[in-house]
Amino acid sequence: MFIRELPSPLFTVEYLPAFIMLVEKISKIKLQLQALHLLIMLMPEANRDTAKAFLQFLKKVVANEGKNKMNLWNVSMIVAPNLFIYKGKRANQQEMQAAATTAHIVRLLIRYQDILWTVPSFLISQVRKMNEAAMNNSKRQLMFDKGVRKLLRRKTMERERPERPESDIPEGVIRVYAPLHSKVSMAIQLNSQTKAKDILARFHCENSHGSSQNMRGHIQSLHEIGGNIGQHCLDPDAFMLDVYRANPQAEWVIKPKAS
């Protein structure tokens, strides 16, 4: 009833045609999911958060099929009109005929929802490549300037040691900063199983006895900053060794998650 009574559709008027077209124009499920993933990322944050909570509820309904007799197909057919037709707007014949299409979209949303709420990995990789290309172009442009080239040569001769103290840290070890904690930094050895949430848990454990008042009541997240990414809030289940290898020049900072 809440979804049905919204003054505008949960998936927004702007993107409703795109949701329909991704089924009608794309036949392969994998490509449909990629398009669906991108559309979810484009939605306003409030709509996306509401959709996430609603789909998690629907997943529980489907999981209890044995008790409520509501399988994935039945749930999608019932829910689809409420997501794609909204209060104050009558459904025309064409929209009614699109019921099967919208039901298919809802089935994809329920079945594959676990991968829809984070930025796709191929987009992260593309951002890294773009940033690396931009940095390389900047370096080449600087080399055309003879004065800058001489300055760089002199600076290189003056310092034989690495630019950053962190470069002395062994391979696979990162230094994580947490400015609002009582313990503001920690070197952590990564392995193939280390996740972002493991690092957050370790800081929480280390600071449990003398926790900072500033952090009390805040949900925290680990951020990858600099190198080839700018700033990236990591998913709690991200494998840190893979992220480190993709961006070894990054800094790692724990911050309160934006409300």
UniProtKB/TrEMBL annotation:
Ranges of residues in domain Rho-GAP: 1-117
UniProt KW keywords: GTPase activation
Pfam family, one: Ubiquitin_RHG40_C
InterPro entries (UniProt xref): RHG40/28/18_ubiquitin, Rho_GTPase_activation_prot, RhoGAP_dom
Gene Ontology process terms (BP): negative regulation of stress fiber assembly; regulation of actin filament polymerization; regulation of small GTPase mediated signal transduction; signal transduction
Keyword Acyltransferase listed: no
Protein name: Rho GTPase activating protein 28
Organism: Taeniopygia guttata
Lineage: Eukaryota, Metazoa, Chordata, Craniata, Vertebrata
Gene symbol of the encoding locus: ARHGAP28
